[in-house]
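Extended Data, record Phosphomethylpyrimidine kinase
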Amino acid sequence: MKKALSIATSDSGAGAGIQADLKAFLRCGVYGTTALVATTAQNTVGVKDIFAFPPEVAVRQIEAVAEDIGADAVKTGMLFNAGIISAVAETVARLDLPNLVVDPVMVAESGAKLLEDDAVESYRRELFPVARVITPNANEAFALLGAEPDEERIEEVAIELHSLGPENVVVTGGHTDSGADLLYDGRKFTRIEGPVHAGGNAHGSGCTHSSALASFLALGLPVEEAARRAREVAAEAVQYGLGEVGAGPGPVHALGRVLEEAGIYQEVSG
Ligand SMILES: Nc1ncnc2c1ncn2[C@@H]1O[C@H](COP(=O)(O)OP(=O)(O)O)[C@@H](O)[C@H]1O
Ligand SMILES: Cc1ncc(COP(=O)(O)OP(=O)(O)O)c(N)n1
């Protein structure tokens, strides 16, 4: 079985973060491992507290996973501060871990800040240059460049992010009018279209998308095909989003369709 490592933060409500990553890995048929860098006290309504671990905690977990289990792909999620980002970048490069997908999580859907201001520079200088793919959403893409959001300029922004060193940029479009993701590989743009599901139960869609993308890279797909399949998995998880969980926007359900096709969806979800 191929393996994917998530380096990310816990969401106690389990809609996003490392919990969403493990569900997406399972959905995509890879064995998921984790390196926890921080934890949030979070539910569907909001983020109440964030507790970051010392960077060494991330380093030791990544080393433990790499020396025994190994990783065919790695994804990073919420890394919260500059010290953690630097330590993760150094460790992934030192251990020569392949297929790094960097999801530069900055703000939760509820509006909470999930990245310290001075950490943006660490993403730009240290983690992006070693990434196979970075997956900012449209707002993050502009914020990473200190620019105001403007959908008309999305291609320029992708080019500018690519110039920071990642091999590929996927700007996810869950909050745009078209709902399409945009892939830029340094030569050409590919729009990745698909169904847009209304309903608003999309908490964790970004985490699910980047984990699915890492999974498909671990399975050996080329980047464009992996990005198409990742959008399908994320959109499907939104389609089956669980409105009945919590009072805020419900968590995505990465396994909804799989359970339905197995005939056990109603039995499981009540
Ligand atoms: N309502 C939706 N319908 C279909 N796909 C969606 C929807 N919302 C998000 N997605 C998909 O989920 C993935 C993550 O999207 P996005 O919302 O941009 O990220 P984030 O959760 O980081 O803000 C993308 O592939 C996007 O196209
Ligand atoms: C612990 C943690 N990590 C990441 C996020 C953001 O996740 P995302 O998939 O971008 O989903 P939304 O929260 O924006 O719906 C988070 N909230 N918590």
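Summary. The chain has one domain: 3-269.
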